[in-house]
Structure formats: C-alpha cells, structure tokens
C-alpha cells in the first residue's frame, strides 16, 4: 500500500511516499513546475508517479485558519483534479494548515541553514502532509 503525498506550490511540488505498509512517510524530492506554461503536471512528477505502484495520492489542501478555501486551495484542488483525470489512482485532499510553518520550525531547530531550508522545505511539508494522513488512518 504505497501512498504519494504532495505539497503543491506555485513554483515547486514537494513529494513524499509512504513505506509499503503505509506507516511512515519519506521525502523524495522537490519538483519544479511552471503551470503558466502548460506545465500543470511536470514530467518529473509523472515519472515519479509511474515508478511506484500507488494505491492513493494525497494532495495538501491549504485552508485558511477559519476553514475556508482561498486562491491557493483552489489551485491545489484543480491540481488534484488533473491527477484524477490523468491517473487511475484515488486522489485525496488533506488539510495542510501550518505544515510549511511547522516544517520550517523543525528545520530551524535542527540548525539547517536558510539556504538549505529553502531547498528542502516543500519536501518536508509533503512528508508532514502524508504522515498526518497516514496517522489519521491508523487510529
């Protein structure tokens, strides 16, 4: 049971995958994207999706603190819809409020330099999104 977790941003997508048991999330990489030039699903992401036998894809949904969905959330929902249309894998949305901030705090507490944090923050956020999803399903 492999599950892919995605933290979708305007310029990058953080990617994480679960172990086969569906217990833990591991960061894979950060994929660059350019949706303004038709690059909705970047080729590298397509390669990653094809390389795993996925049971599910979890896309982070950035909600506002009041629970409403703003422009970033709508972009993520459209991205998830593109995934549904392109792959025969269930795509779930997962509330990702504050995951990027939590990932940043974790990296700061680990004394990771600002330059290095910038390179891994989206991948770390994808891990937190996926791990939150996995943990909620083990209860």
From TrEMBL:
Compartments where found: Cytoplasm
Main location: cytoplasm
Enzyme class: hydrolase
Domain YqgF/RNase H-like: 1-103
GO biological process, one term: rRNA 5'-end processing
Molecular function GO terms recorded: hydrolase activity, acting on ester bonds; nuclease activity
E.C. code: 3.1.-.-
Keywords: Cytoplasm, Hydrolase, Nuclease, Ribosome biogenesis
Pfam families cross-referenced by the UniProt entry: RuvX (PF03652)
GO cellular component terms listed in the entry, alphabetical order: cytosol
Protein function: Could be a nuclease involved in processing of the 5'-end of pre-16S rRNA.
Protein family membership: Belongs to the YqgF HJR family.
UniProt name for this protein: Putative pre-16S rRNA nuclease
Naturally occurring in which organism (per UniProt): Exobacillus caeni
